[in-house]
Amino acid sequence: MHEVQGVRANLHAHFSSGATPILTVRSGETVVVRDVPDVGWGLEPAASATSPRRKVDRDPARDNGPCLCGPIAVEGARPGDTLEVKVESIRTTPWAWTYAGGGMGSPAWNQSLGLGDAPLTLLRWAIDHERGHATSHLGNIVPLRPFLGCIGLTPAAEHADGWTPRACGGNMDCREITSGTRLFLPVMAAGALLSIGDTHAAQGDGEVAGTAIECGLEEARLTLTLHHDRPIRQPRLLTADAWMTLGFESTLDDAAATAMSEMLDLMVAELGMSRAEALALASAQVSLRITQVVNPARGVHAVWPITPRPTRT
Question: Is 138 helix (H, G, I), strand (E, B) or coil?
Fold first, then answer.
């Protein structure tokens, strides 16, 4: 088992195939990542929507993106491989926050919701791990479902925006990447180069305000397994009860088509049927869900329940 601390030297804002790994592990090993600041590089919650808060010292020009910890390299990983990241456990900080309005999310989206001129609004949250819920300062109670909003590999590019989700993951904001989930990502750069950040205590599908219940990470345990014989084109998830495939594009229509195309690849391989037959079955069994509507690339995930699993007769 390896350990990584979210100290300044291990934090960055963008993905780069030329980045120097902070750690190199072998396939099948577990990494424990501790004490990573929140997505805004914060070390504490905001007291109000306008008050300053304690943050990590950073270069505004170089670190103008989400706070990420990494990259972690996997020995022997090369383009064309698939990296499986099993989320063993996640524990958040006891504090969290959610912003809405005031420029958060897409301006067009806020305008359509009647919030185009709304000031920045803050919900402060207290996290109760023992009881399994978060409570806002207004008294709202939400069950905990912690996950990593940003978890991804480095694309082939020397520089890739940290805010944008893509085929090899990144800022996906998919609430299904929680404890017990196995995430499969296509390797696009030597070493795979995994980075994580943007911890959420809970989020609804869509992340409609532009932020979820944003918090820091106390500890995440991730087991990294390399597959040389399972090429994929987009992220896939395996939970206790479903396969999921994800698509990220400039529009929700295109993201849905990408997620569904990857799902058909999976169904054809699993069931041994034609692509048209798989689409017919998917129309009866697969659900499309909006992953998020606020990032530079919109997200959709297709969900295929594992049981009951019809087979071809």
Answer: coil
